[in-house]
Amino acid sequence: MSQNPATGSVVVSDWHRCKDGKEYFNKILHRKKRKIFGKSGVGKTALAARLTGRNIPNVHYETTGVETTVVFWPVKLRDSGRVLFLRLQLWDCGENALRRFDHLLPSCKEQVDAVLFLFSFTDRTSFDDLPNQISKWTEESAGRLVKLVVGTKFDLFMHCDVAQRDVRDFQETWRLPVLRVGGEVSNGLDDVSPLLNCLAEQLWHHDCVTAGSVGLQQETVTLL
């Protein structure tokens, strides 16, 4: 697979703030808050809730299987000025469920376009387990999938258990983008635009390189 594009080199990263982008972003906003698409109240994880504009649950609980939700996100290509309106379907996979039911992981791998590997900056074990998680997908998918790593709870400095030098070493070794997400949530678009823009340009670049496709509209993303 070719080298991943630099963040912001494919799509206009601050287009949600530009005047010509308001027409498109207004379609996913209602009274200055994100519109809710798909089912609600089915136990989305904090990241899935953040990306879809939902309230993050106050009480943590283990996802019992595979839960899906939909995110709509417009982007503007930097070179051509073309506007893409993406429909991203997120699959949230419970770790214990994946261990108990052998059929879940193969189901998650079918026709998936990207995988987000999550770790917490306050949990060193989750960071150390990333190579194991990534290897489960690399063995079979080769260069077929877009892979991103997301570090959560980045703003909890007093409880941080993962040093920035460790993150840099990881990036150099695995050649994967690592995005950082804090615990504080706002109702605006700035909160989610870095991650969604990065995911969009990685998917667009991947499709263009592997299939010469220019019709990217819907992609399936698995969160682990």
Automatic annotation (TrEMBL):
Main location: cytoplasm
GO terms for MF: GTP binding; GTPase activity
Domain of life: Eukaryota
Keyword annotations from UniProtKB, A to Z: Cell projection, Cilium, Cilium biogenesis/degradation, Cytoplasm, Cytoskeleton, Exocytosis, GTP-binding, Nucleotide-binding, Protein transport, Transport
Cited InterPro entries: P-loop_NTPase, RSG1, Small_GTPase
Localization per record: Cytoplasm, Cytoskeleton, Cilium basal body
Protein name (Swiss-Prot/TrEMBL): Ciliogenesis and planar polarity effector 2
Native organism: Betta splendens (Siamese fighting fish)
